[in-house]
Write a structure and sequence with these properties.
single chain; alpha/beta; Udp-n-acetylmuramoylalanyl-d-glutamate--2,6- Diaminopimelate Ligase, Chain: A, domain 1; six-stranded mixed sheet; five-stranded mixed sheet; 11 strands; GTP cyclohydrolase 1 type 2 homolog
Length: 281
């Protein structure tokens, strides 16, 4: 086994998560790094933030594979006078490349929502929103629990399956309602409410639910419970599978790397204070 170059690692990632599968607005791929540089160690993380770069440098990683793009919006500068620019400078000075796989990893199979669906106990998965070029791919997943559960028990199962966060799990629905058929979407999923209704599921697990879309979704489909989790936590399970697939694909080419998954939470919330019981005033 030999050590791959960054270009060889990127080529394999492009096969696993083709950039063409990304949404039009997305910007996955190589952000910074020398294509000819050797890559012995890869750190996988949800967000390319300063704590993750600290972790990469401490571990001696030459590459960070992140889910979220660093420079999603257009920019004319990476000057170190703003946080993302400083991060690019830090990566370059430290000899750490950055590659991102975002909505192309969402659409892939197995992808981000497959991992979320599996850890919360779903089987027989299919895309919630099939891709136009391949119906086996697409955003979100729909599956079923092998044994139906009351909504409260299912929500507790979700909470146990995902890394802990300050926000925990929020639920809209009857705690005793029967849950068997479930839709999931790693990351923000309230743009998929129409697809969730069409799927006829008992519950929808996703992140970043806004007040008005969630309220309207409940009014339009009161039989579908909403289970809201942390954005970061909903996407973190994908990292382990992505590491295994990258290692295996490189090994098939006679190339060897070491991978690790970031243990540092990039969830932005520090703590939450429970509301007092009783009615609003």
């Amino acid at each position: 086994m030999s050590t791959p170059t960054l270009a060889q690692v990127v080529a394999v990632l492009d096969e696993l998560y083709p950039p063409a599968w990304a949404e039009d607005w997305d910007r996955p791929g190589l952000v910074c790094g020398d294509p000819d540089a050797p890559v012995e160690r890869v750190l996988l993380a949800v967000d390319p933030v300063e704590d993750v770069v600290d972790e990469a440098v401490a571990e001696g990683a030459q590459l960070v594979l992140a889910h979220h793009p660093l420079l999603l919006r257009g920019t004319s500068t990476v000057a170190a006078t703003f946080p993302k620019g400083r991060l690019v400078h830090r990566l370059v000075r430290s000899g750490v490349a950055l590659v991102t796989a975002h909505t192309n990893a969402d659409s892939a199979r197995p992808g981000v929502s497959d991992a979320l669906a599996r850890v919360v106990g779903l089987v027989d998965l299919e895309p919630l929103v099939p891709a136009s070029h391949d119906a086996s791919l697409g955003l979100g997943r729909v599956g079923r629990l092998e044994q139906p559960l009351p909504l409260r028990a299912f929500a507790e199962q979700v909470a146990q399956a995902l890394p802990g966060t300050a926000g925990g799990v929020r639920v809209a629905g009857d705690p005793d309602a029967r849950v068997e058929r479930v839709a999931v979407c790693g990351g923000a999923g309230d743009s998929l409410f129409a697809d969730v209704r069409a799927a006829g599921v008992d519950a929808f697990v996703t992140a970043d639910l806004r007040h008005h879309p969630a309220s309207e979704a409940r009014e339009q489909a009161p039989q579908t419970a909403l289970v809201e989790v942390s954005h970061w936590a909903s996407e973190w399970p994908w990292l382990h599978g992505a590491a295994e697939r990258l290692t295996s694909a490189l090994a098939e080419r006679g190339l060897s790397i070491t991978t690790s998954v970031s243990v540092r939470s990039s969830d932005p919330w520090s703590f939450h204070v429970p509301s007092p019981t009783g009615t609003a005033r």
